[in-house]
Design goal:
213 residues, alpha/beta, 22% strand, binds S-adenosylmethionine, Ribosomal RNA small subunit methyltransferase G, cytoplasm, methyltransferase, S-adenosyl-L-methionine
Length: 213
């Protein structure tokens, strides 16, 4: 893509992001700028991602927001630089969000980001691996952490009685769901694939939603 085309894509995405984040756009923009600056300096975001941060990262992170119930307690497993947990927390001030990340540099970035954005009252940062952590969360979110076959056994201990997993998966969703049929049955769980998008002009992506059957 030429630099001009890159500028067009980034400009369009910013316009869409203004609509999606509404009154919280400035906060989303502050997070966008943190990713583009410190996030790339610390090696958490590739420099080539910068022109597509809005569409591929921030907007993609809130594509499934309608599936998250009002006031839910959410844990974002393997949050990395805060995706999808931080954009979700920015767009949805009704949510309590815990960002769970084992790697020190990413954990440090997250604690600073949450502080800088002034959202630490309802966004907690924890250092750890999902499988070593217990909780009673309403929603477990994850993006690009592991295939469902690995991920589901790790996160079962984080789910409250009515808890759900929302795993952003894209094109691998159907194959991954097929591979965990035995695990789902054994644990009395059901999975469905839901097509979601942040905005009518955004691409549809797939979320795997796992609930108690
Ligand atoms: C490819 S990154 C994705 C980060 C972010 N979710 C995103 O979409 O940009 C995968 C992240 O999962 C974390 N991770 C790997 N294994 C994990 C585990 N067992 N529990 C929690 N996080 C884990 C890694 O440290 C890394 O930050």
């Amino acid at each position: 893509m030429s630099e001009d085309q890159n500028d067009n894509v980034a400009g369009d995405s910013e316009r869409i992001a203004r609509e999606v984040f509404g009154a919280r756009f400035e906060l989303a923009e502050a997070y966008h700028d943190l990713l583009a600056g410190q996030g790339t300096e610390w090696g958490l975001i590739g420099p080539r991602e910068v022109p597509r941060l809005w569409e591929r990262h921030l907007l993609n992170s809130v594509a499934f927001a309608d599936l998250v119930p009002e006031g839910a307690d959410v844990v974002d497993v393997g949050s990395g630089a805060g995706l999808p947990g931080v954009p979700l927390a920015i767009q949805r001030p009704d949510l309590g969000v815990t960002l769970l990340e084992p790697l020190l540099r990413r954990y440090n970035f997250l604690t600073q980001a949450v502080d800088n954005l002034g959202i630490s009252e309802r966004v907690a940062v924890e250092r750890g691996r999902a499988e070593d952590y217990d909780g009673k969360f309403d929603i477990v979110t994850c993006r690009a952490v592991a295939p469902l076959e690995k991920l589901l056994p790790w996160v079962l201990g984080l789910l409250g009685r009515r808890g759900e997993v929302l795993a952003l998966k894209g094109s691998s969703a159907a194959d991954e769901v097929a591979a965990v049929q035995g695990f789902l049955k054994k644990n009395k769980l059901a999975a469905e694939i839901v097509g979601v998008r942040a905005h009518p002009e955004s691409e549809v992506t797939s979320v795997v939603r796992v609930r108690r059957a």
